[in-house]
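Let us work through a complete example step by step.
Step 1: write down the sequence.
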Amino acid sequence: MNEKVERICHISHMICDQLNTDKTVRDLIDRAGHRCKSDLVSQMVQEMPALQGIMGAYYSVYFKESPEVSLAIKEHYQPRSESDELPKSIPGIILSISDRLDSIVACFENDNIPTGSRDPWGIRRSMIAIIRMMIQNNLNLDLRVLIEDATLTLGRKLSDKTDACLSFFKKRIETVILDEGIPH
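Step 2: predict the structure and record it as tokens.
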């Protein structure tokens, strides 16, 4: 779990660099990032996985974290489905994107690439969520750099798998742009 948290925090730092966020926001994201998966060790979340993030937010309030940290922890699991709300706070958005990018890259690096209609890890849904967050919040992120950095952070070398991930992402971007009616 600690390795996943460290990767999420590292990717979050890269996103903060690209967005030129100030130190206050970076520190808040770092606190939330280091605590965002702590609810996974609770019996509550093991019994009811739908409470991921929600219980994390409650636990963070109990342990006297700031409301902004608690909100970021709660929001980083959003959206859970295509119809779910996107995170609204910048820390929640950045953590959500970071967590998803880490999972996407790990799946590609471990040959868990969606085929046909099979997508047991929800890679397509995660990519579309990232794209929707970027569009809705007008985030100018260099996904190539983030995916390459996430690959290196995972302890892997850039390879054909990295290129496959980027290519797969580009197809999802095209799909979202067409669906949203965004002009070329």
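Step 3: interpret the result. The chain has a mean pLDDT of 89.
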